Amino acid sequence: MVLIATGSEVSAIVAAAKLLADEGIAVRVVSFPSWKIFEEQTAEYKASVLPAGVPKLAVEAGATLGWWKYVGLDGDVIGLDRFGASAPGPIVLEKLGFGAANIAARAKKLVK
Question: What is the pTM of this model?
């Protein structure tokens, strides 16, 4: 299983990875700060970071647009394709599905 995030979501995927590891699920955490720089890399490098045949879940506290290229048709994206909400940061992120427990639950659905 590969969990991918770009910025503020990285801490949430790290926490989710710990929950999954506690259940015996192997997880790779990928901090993905720049699509542009990633695209400039060799095919071999890209395949080493996001290996084929491994389920992938991207977490983006913004639009999901563009992430499907990296997670594939069998992957998933947790994102927000609408306007957000108003509340203190940690509360709104949890309510919108960006908490570690929800990320881990969505990841488990991808693991066969």
Answer: 0.91
Residue 73: CB partners within 8 Å, gap ≥ 6?
none
* Residue among 26, 28, 48 at smallest CA distance from 111: 26
Using CA atoms, how far apart are residues 32 and 87, in angstroms rounded to an integer?
27
β strands within 7-111, DSSP E: 28-31, 56-59, 76-78
**pLDDT digits (tens), the chain, 112 positions:** 999 999 889 999 999 999 999 999 999 999 999 999 999 999 999 999 999 999 999 999 889 999 999 999 999 999 988 886 777 777 778 887 889 999 999 999 999 7
With both helix axes pointing from N to C terminus, report the angle between 10-22 and 100-110 in degrees, rounded to the nearest 10. 60
| Whole-angstrom distance, CA of residue 105 vs CA of residue 96 | 14
Taken in order of first residue, the domains within the chain and their CATH numbers are 2-110 (3.40.50.920)
